[in-house]
Recover the amino acids of this structure.
């Protein structure tokens, strides 16, 4: 008689067993290894590391396997693991000007010191399905140049020499916010905003960045420079008092150069937007740089009228672990609240009917 | 129910001790300023945001080995998410769990307050999706914080008044705003307004955790909690013409259950423990049987 769900425990257990079975798929097909994901799905691994805020290729690959390739779910898995880790040290800022760059391009200069280096890119490929990949194939031999020894000064530094771009005053001693330990607070300063964007959902940032190009907070961007490659991570252990290297990480950095018409007190100059992501994540880094610049409206005295310029709007909605959880919580039972609304709508309708009957009777 | 086997490689109750201490600080501040939303460094949990991460973090920070935990969702212990959260704590703490309201020292809830009055020494932890009672009237956190600081709650009264002007009554049936200790406007979380009076002067400690929104707030024991209303439109709770089909209760919040595709329905207690308890005492409704 009583039809409400009973035995939730058994149902959950069975559902999870079914999930494991579906994850594995056809047993006649060899199982995907974590190493294969790491090596051959490397851009998925990069995205999961970036938005999961944890630089660990093996764990990111494991998360992708466990999540059946659902990257937002994999990001969630990695975040939930990350939260249990102890914090040993805080690294010194990475120096991307010393990057061993695998790719480096600038859209603002035809040629520049260090040169334009395309690296492994989808750019200029024709997006035609390559049916040869349906079979296992050989990889063509590639002639590689060793770019690591060539000096690659930053485009923004070159503009800076001429005083054409805003000065970036860096104070490495100033305290920085920590989004993973403190809740968001407003007004949010740039270091906090950038942290949020770095963890933010690529799709969300892409759309927000795109909107700035379509007139919702136009910031006239140029891709000043995009570079990707390995940088050294250094920490200063308290007992040593000097920096030691603990390893290299691969990052993608984008510096956007944006027009600024100047104000009553300031001469016209270029302004900056910054993007940084783990691994090869060019789309993410570029979108991030656009949104970073748009959100600097307050600091630059620009009128805030577009969504991408609105820091509360952007920062509160960029995190896909938060967004995915809250959107999907609608699957949870809401029958107590729904019952409250049912009762009220019934009452309101009954009253309206009464009134109508009374009116008709008069 | 006791669970001897706990999850290896994780701290007691999942969170590390520093995080628990940070959350306890936030809880203490929340208790000191009843109804005030304290920002805290909410962590990612292995359950999704919106599924009780705030309540889980609060519970994880205060649970001890001697506690007995009850977890309910929609008033019931056997709804899937309640099962999942209870299982999470059983795995990460090994503490005793119970479905009996009176046996629990710690009750984590979503959307309900148990029918059986809570006692001194018990703690009720609410899962909160949107902690800000003014959020639907003002989407900006920077603004709502100012409104709380200045106790500027006129907009909420205007909203309730507009309901009356339009519908002849206040059309909020859950998450009905309350004034705590005469100072802070507070969202009771989406409990039905039926439960609001239970919050007033409750002997148990009430803690509210919003994980995604990173806020904790509290109502200390024996604190005045008033549901907003007007002199000529006093606060009212839901009433049913029916009683519980299983236990015959007329004083409990009822869930509507559709029993066929011809509009047939019955009503049953949303609080499963209350219902079972009544049946154990020999009460029964039109469709139920007295327990043996």
């Amino acid at each position: 008689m009583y039809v409400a769900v009973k035995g939730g425990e058994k149902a959950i257990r069975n559902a999870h067993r079914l999930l494991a079975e579906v994850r594995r798929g056809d047993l006649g097909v060899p199982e995907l290894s974590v190493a294969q994901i790491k090596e051959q799905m490397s851009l998925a691994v990069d995205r999961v590391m970036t938005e999961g805020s944890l630089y660990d290729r093996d764990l990111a690959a494991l998360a992708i396997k466990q999540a059946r390739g659902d990257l937002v779910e994999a990001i969630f898995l990695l975040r939930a693991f990350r939260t249990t880790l102890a914090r040993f040290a805080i690294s010194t800022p990475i120096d991307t000007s010393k990057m061993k760059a695998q790719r480096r391009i600038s859209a603002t200069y035809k040629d520049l010191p260090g040169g334009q280096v395309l690296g492994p890119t989808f750019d200029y490929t024709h997006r035609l399905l390559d049916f040869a990949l349906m079979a296992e194939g050989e990889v063509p031999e590639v002639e590689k140049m060793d770019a690591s020894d060539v000096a690659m000064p930053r485009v923004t530094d070159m503009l800076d020499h001429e005083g054409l771009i805003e000065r970036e005053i860096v104070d490495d001693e100033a305290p920085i916010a920590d989004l993973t330990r403190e809740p968001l607070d407003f007004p949010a300063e740039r270091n906090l905003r950038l942290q949020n964007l770095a963890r933010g959902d690529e799709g969300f940032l892409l759309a927000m960045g795109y909107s700035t190009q379509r007139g919702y907070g136009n910031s006239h961007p140029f891709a000043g420079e995009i570079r990707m490659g390995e940088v050294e991570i250094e920490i200063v252990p308290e007992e040593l008092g000097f920096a030691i290297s603990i390893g290299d990480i691969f990052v993608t950095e984008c510096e956007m150069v944006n027009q600024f018409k100047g104000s009553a007190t300031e001469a016209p100059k270029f302004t900056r937007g910054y993007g940084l992501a783990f691994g090869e994540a060019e789309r993410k880094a570029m979108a991030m740089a656009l949104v970073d610049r748009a959100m600097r409206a307050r600091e630059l005295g620009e009128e805030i009228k577009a969504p991408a310029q609105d820091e509360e709007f952007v920062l509160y909605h960029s995190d896909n672990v938060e967004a995915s959880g809250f959107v999907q919580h609608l699957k949870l039972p809401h029958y107590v609240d729904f019952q409250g609304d049912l009762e009220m709508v019934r009452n309101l309708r009954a009253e309206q009917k009464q009134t109508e009957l009374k009116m008709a009777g008069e | 129910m006791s669970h001897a086997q706990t999850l290896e490689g994780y701290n007691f109750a999942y969170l590390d001790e520093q995080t628990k201490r940070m959350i306890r600080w936030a809880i203490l501040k929340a208790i000191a300023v009843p109804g005030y939303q304290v920002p805290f460094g909410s962590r990612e949990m292995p359950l999704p945001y919106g599924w009780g991460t705030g309540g889980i973090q609060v519970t994880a920070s205060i649970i001890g080995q001697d506690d007995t935990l009850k977890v309910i969702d929609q008033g019931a212990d056997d709804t899937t998410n309640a099962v999942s959260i209870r299982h999470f704590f059983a795995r990460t703490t090994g503490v005793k769990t119970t479905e009996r309201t009176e046996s629990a020292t710690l009750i984590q809830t979503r959307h309900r307050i148990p029918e059986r009055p809570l006692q001194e020494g018990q703690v009720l932890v609410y899962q909160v999706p949107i902690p800000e009672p003014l959020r639907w009237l003002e989407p900006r956190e920077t603004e709502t914080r100012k409104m709380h600081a200045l106790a500027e709650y006129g907009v909420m009264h205007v909203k309730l008044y507009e309901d009356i002007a339009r519908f002849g009554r206040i059309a909020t049936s859950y998450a009905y705003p309350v004034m705590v200790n005469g100072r802070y406007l507070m969202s009771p979380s989406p409990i039905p307004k039926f439960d609001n009076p239970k919050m007033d002067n409750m002997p148990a400690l009430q803690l509210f955790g919003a994980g995604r929104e990173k806020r904790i707030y509290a109502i200390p024991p024996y604190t005045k909690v008033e549901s907003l209303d007007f002199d000529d439109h006093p606060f009212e709770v839901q009433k049913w013409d029916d009683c519980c089909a299983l236990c015959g209760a007329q004083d409990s919040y009822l869930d509507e259950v559709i029993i066929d595709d011809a509009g047939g329905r019955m009503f049953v207690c949303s609080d499963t423990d209350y219902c079972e308890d009544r049946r154990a005492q020999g009460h029964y409704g039109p469709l139920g049987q007295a327990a043996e």
Remarks:
- Chain B touches chain A through 64 residues (CB under 8 Å).
- Residues 282 and 290 of chain B are 5 Å apart (CA to CA).
- The helical segments of chain B are 17-32, 53-62, 80-93, 141-149, 154-167, 196-199, 272-280.
- The first strand of chain B starts at residue 38 and ends at 39.
